[in-house]
User: Which sequence fits this backbone?
């Protein structure tokens, strides 16, 4: 269950980060980090965004979550898809007892994930969704979902406001840039994992740590790994 004091502290940090004008891809990743750190009931998180008629995987916290988000992207079935298209939270407490998502649900169970939730990113209309993951089956607490909604709403408002002075086309381009940024990051993770003999998650931690220590966004660091030979 989310603790009141920890929740407000996390909201304050997230708000300060938004005020810093970070790239959308970094904001979406920070969103995932905030909702998992605020409570022990959420083990991992990912975000997908709407681009034209599809929901596309944008970011996730680890390789297991990324794998499942890719399946959702490919199948166009899952809690993020339903939440984004319907504009309402979608909660599944035990996929083993009720799997409405076919391949996505069976893949989740194979990865050890038993409970999933989709939280829409809402502006004037849905622009994507936040996925919450839990390894143990149990009902989602109202307080945890309400807290996740706060972060999702803040992120959605940031995305919209960042594009307020430009046409809708520019917002779509920025969301597409977030997807392309994820591809560059995945390539850099793979390169570092091979060269350092580590896991993709450990490679990502190297990227993230270098970016934070040098006050750079993670996309810039990933491009430097690929194009300039940087080896954090």
Assistant:
């Amino acid at each position: 269950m989310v603790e009141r004091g920890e929740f407000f502290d996390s909201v304050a940090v997230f708000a300060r980060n938004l005020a810093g004008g970070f790239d959308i891809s970094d904001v979406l990743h920070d969103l995932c980090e905030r909702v998992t750190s605020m409570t022990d009931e959420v083990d991992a998180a990912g975000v997908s965004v709407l681009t034209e008629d599809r929901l596309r995987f944008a970011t996730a916290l680890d390789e297991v979550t990324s794998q499942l988000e890719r399946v959702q992207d490919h199948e166009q079935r899952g809690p993020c898809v339903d939440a984004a298209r319907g504009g309402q939270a979608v909660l599944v407490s035990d996929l083993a007892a009720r799997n409405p998502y076919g391949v996505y649900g069976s893949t989740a169970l194979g990865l050890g994930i038993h409970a999933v939730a989709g939280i829409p990113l809402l502006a004037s209309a849905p622009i994507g969704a936040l996925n919450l993951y839990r390894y143990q089956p149990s009902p989602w607490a109202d307080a945890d979902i309400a807290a996740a909604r706060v972060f999702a709403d803040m992120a959605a408002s940031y995305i919209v406001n960042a594009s307020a002075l430009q046409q809708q086309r520019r917002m779509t381009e920025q969301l597409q840039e977030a997807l392309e940024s994820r591809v560059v990051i995945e390539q850099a993770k793979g390169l570092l994992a091979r060269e350092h003999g580590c896991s993709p998650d450990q490679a990502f931690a190297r990227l993230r740590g270098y970016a934070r220590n040098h006050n750079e966004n993670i996309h810039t660091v990933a491009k430097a790994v690929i194009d300039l030979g940087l080896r954090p």
In short: The chain has a mean pLDDT of 86.
